[in-house]
Specification:
340 residues, mainly alpha, Farnesyl Diphosphate Synthase, two-stranded antiparallel sheet, 15 helices, globular
Amino acid sequence: MALLYKIDTNKDLENQKKFTQLNQLVSYDLAKVNDLIKKKVKNHIPFIEIVAKHLINAGGKRIRPMLCLASAKLCDYKGKKDIELAACVEFIHTATLLHDDVVDNSNKRRGVDTANKIWGNKGSVLVGDFLLSKSFELMISIKQSNVLKILSETASTLIQGEISQLLTNNDFSTTEDSYLEIIKSKTAKLFSTSCQVGALISKKPKIYSNALNSYGVNLGMAFQIIDDLLDYKSIESETGKKIGNDFNEGKVTLPIIIAFHRGNNEERNFWIRTIQKKQKKSGDFEKACNYINKRNIIDDIQKRAVHFGSVAKDALEIFPNRKEKKVLLDIVDFIVNRNF
């Protein structure tokens, strides 16, 4: 495969430190969140606990609960509701992953076999529903109507976003604007909620909750744009990033949308055959990467992510300069420049 991108190891390590700083900021509370999650998935039906723990223990950045905890710290919150809220957003996220893997017929998640591959689609969907129910239990336990409202709306919006993405699979009438609306629903909404609730439980003035909402939604947009780009960004093997999944599943994400519109007739026919007609053959993914590289798409998509990252940073300027703010600003750079 042609190498489209070569990692600058020093830059990558420097970027990783920014994520580590966020982890360190919330590590004490994050341990409590993980304990609460384990407690909530315990069940008298062993199958539920086994499937839930399979995905929960498979790794993942825990970026959403960490953002929830860090945002609460930024707003000087001193209670315990942030622990429950962080667990709640992680339950919502984990439930959507279980459902996504069924919809996408995925066999791997974070390098391990998916729950649907091991236990089948029916079990995965039902355990996903179980995790959603646990998220609603935690929402109610907060006993704060504005928090319950935003979290329940978020769960609904995520599902709508996933449905919209499903309907755009293999569909080249999808525009960049449509793509952005989809990722705003399916990804950015949970990011924004994870950040905004920190201000709500702190009883901060609306100007601060609105700022954290803007920060979160733009950070989430950058996150998903980079996530979709990484599927076509050939990188050195030590990163462990498995590429080509979106291409194999026929997802019309931003790299393909731009490549289709910029391509000549030969290139468009290639995209129609491989994505729309689902007729793939050996070497097609390598050809897809070469077309994307040829049209300078990686750099241009990176610039789009940088734009959303800049908007996210500007949203935090209303907060006083302190450690929590710096960590949240730095995590924007981590998201935009990450390679995994």
